[in-house]
Each structure stands twice: as C-alpha cells, then as structure tokens.
Design a protein that fits this description.
The protein is α+β, with helices and mostly antiparallel strands. About 55% of the residues lie in helices and about 20% in strands. The chain has three helices and three strands, in the order αβαββα. The chain has a three-stranded antiparallel β-sheet, covered by helices on one side. A hairpin with a 2-residue loop joins strand 2 and strand 3. The two termini are about 25 Å apart.
Amino acid sequence: MKKSSSDKVDVRKGTFLAEVAELWPMAKGSLAEVHKPCIRPTCPACIRGDKHPAYIYTYMAGGRRRCMHVPRELVPRLRQAIQNGRRMEERLVQKGCEMVREYRRERDMRDRRKGTA
C-alpha cells in the first residue's frame, strides 16, 4: 500500500521532533569569559590589577543585544545548550532546502504526468 502525503509528513515530523529532543537543552547566543574588578575596595587581587573571571551570556531580544551574568556552575550546561542551538539552526536550514527540493521534484513529476496524458 502506498503511503499518503500526510503519512509521509507525520513520519518526517516525528523524526524531526526526535532530533530536537536529542539536542535539548538549546540556546541561541554566545558565552564569553571576561575579567572584571569586584566591588570590594580592599580586594588584594583588584589592588594588584588582577581582575576576577566572570561569564557573560549575550543574546538578541527585541532586536537589541542583551547580556546576562552566568554563574560559574551553569557555564558547562549553557555552553552545551549554545552548541546544540547552533546544530538546530543548521538542521532548520537543511529542512528548508529539503522542502524546496521535494516541492520541485513533485512539481516535475506532475508536469511529466500532464505532458504524457
């Protein structure tokens, strides 16, 4: 029995959702290590000119660049989420290309059938 178009869509959707689940957690943005002075006026490290490492998450919201301080213990998880987000963006581009190619293939098949009918 031949699969209907909606059956094919359901299978592809299920496959895509499984890929999304494997990539969870996801985030879009960047993570940077910066060095900043602390607020204590008598900090020996700051007095020497050494600054304290900190992490900043940068992202776009409402068309503007935003930044957030990231606690050190969250850094590995956020780094992985950003990497997963980039993989998902690549996958979405691939899906768009696949959609156009499939449309063209189906259109060409319809045109060939019309030409031979």
